Amino acid sequence: MTVVTLGVHIVDVLARPVESIPAGQDTHLLEQIRVTAAGAAAATAVDLAALGVPVASVGAIGDDELGDLLVMMMGRRGVDVSGIVRRPGEQTAASILPIRPDGGRPSFHVPGANLGLSTADVARETVLGARAVHLGGMDVTWGLYDPAFYALLDEARAAGTIVTMDLLSNMPDLMQGVRAFLPHVDYLLPNEEQALLMSGATGVEEAASALLALMPEGTSAVLVTLGADGSLIADAEGLTRVPALDVPVVDTTGCGDAYCAGFVAGLVDGHDVAGAARLGTALAARVAGGLGSDAGLDGARELRDEK
Fold first, then answer.
1. What is the distance between the alpha carbons of residues 261 and 43, in angstroms, rounded to a whole number?
2. Which contacts (CB < 8 Å, 24+ apart) does range 123-129 have?
3. Does residue 242 come out as left (phi exceeding 0), alpha (psi in the -120 to 50 range) or beta?
4. What are the Cα distances from residue 219, in Å, to 134, 158, 160, 231, 236?
5. CB atoms inside a 10 Å sphere around CB 148
6. Backbone dihedral angles phi then psi of residue 6, each to the nearest 5 degrees
7. Could you tell me which residue, 218 or 43, shows the higher pLDDT?
8. Distance of alpha carbon 11 from alpha carbon 67, whole angstroms
9. DSSP code per residue over 225-256
10. Which fold has domain 3-18+32-306?
11. What pTM did the predictor assign?
12. Which of 32, 109, 116, 214 pairs as cysteine with 95 (C-beta 3.0–4.6 A)?
């Protein structure tokens, strides 16, 4: 298996355009409602599959109808879902996202079974056999704050596996805790707010450099996504800016996950960090043009071929 995505799995229900919540029991007619596989592991897996990268996803969901739906959606997209565990009596994580006309996305969220994912749920051979492991949402998978899991990551890295990490929330308390993963990760991909909260810095360049100093020396890098301003790379060569593509934005849901997927695919294909970041940027631009984390994926393999 080329890539394993490990972490948060969510069912998203999205509606657009939403300008206000109806009063009482009034009804507003909308243009579009969709249900998608989301979360920093599940959405990244779906995006990787669209790029033609063999991918398996590992996480915890409920033994409920939402879980059935999530597994079905991911499987139909070509993701190996055999590593997803089902928790009897627990709810599959879900979000309701009323998307504003400008693409903004307030949310209503239930974290569900993600909070209970633990090292015991992760098959060693799945991690050790991967070309790359993408950790998605470690800030909310508290059962993986475990020396045994860190040791597994170190063993995989020693054998040549690339380990990347993205985050889910912008909660200050969680951002400090997730720093424990940094010595065991090759590439960190936070957004700007997450980078500032994790580092305590006041500027994004300072934040990226401070976080890089906490990671293994050598080929490690921090890539901070900056929305319309593109992304910032901090590595041993210094700081590099990668511009965003100028595209009409419908919904920003899943753009960070798409960036991660493109970046990981680029690394697996042998591109340097900047080249992999450009592939991530291109895939994120596609996703921003539609509703949901899997929007714009038809024909995504062409992006990988072009790079």
1. 9
2. 123/58, 123/83, 124/152, 126/1, 126/4, 126/56, 126/58, 126/83, 127/4, 127/6, 127/152, 127/153, 127/156, 127/161, 128/152, 128/155, 128/156, 128/159, 128/161, 129/1
3. beta
4. 16, 13, 12, 18, 7
5. 12
6. -135, 120
7. 43
8. 8
9. E-GGG-EEEEETTEEEEEPPP----S--TTHH
10. UDP-N-acetylmuramoyl-L-alanine:D-glutamate ligase (3.40.1190)
11. 0.95
12. 109
| Residue carrying the six token digits 């592991």 | 41
pLDDT digits (tens, 9 = 90+) for 262-274: 999 999 999 999 9
Tokens, residue 21: 């919540």
Q: In what order do the strands lie in the sheet with 80-87?
A: 80-87, 55-62, 3-7, 132-136, 162-166, 187-188, 221-225, 231-235, 238-242
pLDDT digits (tens, 9 = 90+) for 102-128: 888 899 999 999 999 999 999 999 999
Q: Output the CA–CA distances (angstroms, integers) from residue 5 to 157, 165, 226, in the order listed.
A: 15, 10, 23
Amino acid at 225: T
Nearest to 278 by CA among 247, 233, 220, 222: 233
Assign 307 a pLDDT band (cuts: 50, 70, 90).
Answer: low
Q: Tell me the domain boundaries of the chain.
A: 3-18+32-306
Place of tokens 């470690």: 138
pLDDT at position 1 is 64
Structure-block tokens of residue 197 = 């909260």
